[in-house]
Amino acid sequence: MKYEFPQYRKLANSLSYYEIVSADFLKEIQRMGNRWTEYEIKAKILPERILIEDVLNNEGERYDTITKHEFDEFKNYCLSNLKRF
Predict the structure, then answer these.
(1) Is this prediction's pTM over 0.85?
(2) Which ranges in the chain belong to alpha helices (H)?
């Protein structure tokens, strides 16, 4: 399936939000209790590429499609209300 980038997703439990910048680059914001962290994954090996494909294609029905606005709201909430790891 072909996508226009960026794409935005979140885990069904709303604890991880994703900005998929390209087919091989992903940003994740993850909340853990009252803390949060941010990851960037530049897919260089097959498991990383598969992860990005899984998030894009809602593998296992674990991911919900969201808007950029929802992604930005979550990031702003984390920045304003939680401690960073």
Answers:
(1) yes
(2) 46-57, 68-81
